């Protein structure tokens, strides 16, 4: 009788060892990629901030079952954030404030890190931390004012401009989640997300923010007559899409990420920014690549742990 080698104890131990080694290598690669991504969006102090945000005891603004937690914890936020920046640039006064008072060219990742920290603090942090984050942003807004290229004055405390920034973000985050999120929301969930975002917007100074998906679409449409192409907006789009300060190895994945974000913009938002429009390719190739890319980010970045207390 011939005994097959595959049944020997030595072979089984060898296979087991190789499996364990492969899993360890995969975990190491995942941890390294996740750490790099997390540092990019949260900064070098990200782990410490994450610990504070998610584990400081006390009530939260949003309970654990609220839609805002599901959306803001998902990797689709990477795509939604890029779309929001492009969309926001179309308002001349909002873009003037960014161009004249932001160092996005010199420190683009710093701006990203501050924004992601604000979203984390208000979504997941204790009520004390969330309010402190809002107060900090309102303090910054009071120092942002000037005169745009068209001669109109602006101030970041203007409730109308605050509303534009808010609805561009809410619309972008929601659309990205519906297309690329791990668990897209039903209609009640989408309305709930807009209502959750409205609570933060109201605290920032937005007057009567939209509270349903339909209201959000109506407000976005109402802003369209105010939106236009400006040199500052086109310049920001070129920087964001074509010349970000990234290592060579990261350029291709980032290019796929930006293509995914651009593909979510409506035609009326692309024309002023001189962005391409290829519906057949976007609905097939770009969307497929986007799902793979967002899925990869989701695999690399572990979901936030539940806080000590998430009750209101």
Automatic annotation (TrEMBL):
One Pfam family linked to the record: MPAB_Lcp_cat
ER-bound oxygenase mpaB/mpaB'/Rubber oxygenase catalytic domain sequence ranges: 69-292
GO molecular function: oxidoreductase activity
UniProt-recorded name of the protein: ER-bound oxygenase mpaB/mpaB'/Rubber oxygenase catalytic domain-containing protein
